[in-house]
Amino acid sequence: MSVSELRHDWTPEDVKALFELPFADLLWRAQALHRKYFEPNTVQLSTLLSIKTGACPEDCAYCPQSVRYDTGLKKEALMEVEAVVAAAREAKAGGATRFCMGAAWRSPKDRDIDKVEVMVREVKALGLETCMTLGMLKSDQASRLADAGLDYYNHNLDTSPEFYGKIITTRTYEDRLETLGNVREAGIKVCCGGIVGMGEQPQDRAELLRQLAIMNPHPESVPINNLVQVGGTPLDGVAALSPIEFVRTIAIARILMPKSYVRLSAGRTEMSDETQALCFLAGANSIFYGERLLTTDNPQNARDRALLAQLGMRPEASPVPSEAEVTCAQRAAAATAPVAAGCGCSH
Ligand code: SAM
Ligand code: DTB
Ligand code: SF4
Fold first, then answer.
1. Residue 226: closest CA among 303, 282, 147, 279
2. Is the pTM of this model over 0.85?
3. Taking CB atoms and a 6 Å cutoff, what residues make up the pocket around ligand 3?
4. Which has the closest alpha carbon to 265: 234, 290, 240, 248?
5. pLDDT per residue as tens digits for the range 23-45
6. For ligand 1, is residue 102 a contact (CB within 6 Å)?
7. Within 10 Å of residue 12's Cβ, how many Cβ atoms?
8. pLDDT (tens digit, 9 = 90+) per residue, 266-279?
């Protein structure tokens, strides 16, 4: 790999120059890198579940789950493990390879970790990659999740450091970076991105992407969310971002972080098929699949299947074997007599 591609020293001028490229030139560069590091017609499917909903003490201006805004959302306590595993099984049957569990917490308590550890183990045993987003984590909490087998932790920077205080006042950019450091240190893969369409300036989008790209290593997964406007939140009614500018943001994420999965995240329900297709051309290679995000709607599975089929795109295969598949392979390997077709079970 050429060193000039996998860089961590991007300057604000570098990123500004990318935003100023003619659209076709930008997409050409993004596509070339995408094709170099990934199979371009394959998309990774992640399914989300809100495991603890609403009543969050933070004041994130975009979020329907903050206790400070009247969004009509019904709060729900931390789910039971069995119900989470049932949802994960359904997600796997639908074709997802990663299951992302989100909780509306500022930060989990140690007793919450006792419960979510079990969720991680049981979801992973189904043969799914696991991801959690639980708010700020202390280093010992991150280590406990790593020991339970958590593959990814999602913790977004959301916007530029300069715009952050206009969106959230109950925590700082530094707090976010500290948790990301704890997650990295514990050996969990980092899922970190942001939201656009919040009324930020173009330089805020550029600086968000630059902040992600100067991380070393880059986040393995980079979700780019288009704001889902929810009645009752302070950002309801803000001017929407143009689809072309959204596609540019995806393309620049791809160029700055060529080996990372770039997820076309929240906001697809409101997006045309054509805009989504341009996002895939620009290097997006992951989506949230399933009819709900956390508390808002995502496209129906049938619409997504039709879109992927129309584009000749296929879902990425799971990198994680299920417990049943592992046991099956172990049995085959341990057998003394030659085994013609595994151990005879259905895997
Ligand atoms: N409470 C944890 C936290 O904030 O890190 C985890 C859950 S929080 C809902 C996860 C992410 O969802 C946020 O960082 C934000 O990027 C995204 N998000 C929340 N509300 C959104 C909205 N209305 N539109 C788009 N993205 C949103
Ligand atoms: C991320 O970047 N986007 C997801 C996931 N990480 C947790 C969440 C989107 C939430 C959209 C609003 C909602 O459904 O509540
Ligand atoms: Fe709470 Fe996360 Fe929503 Fe902010 S984004 S209000 S921390 S659930």
1. 279
2. yes
3. 56, 58, 60, 63, 65-66, 104, 106, 135
4. 290
5. 999 999 999 999 999 999 999 99
6. yes
7. 11
8. 999 999 999 999 99
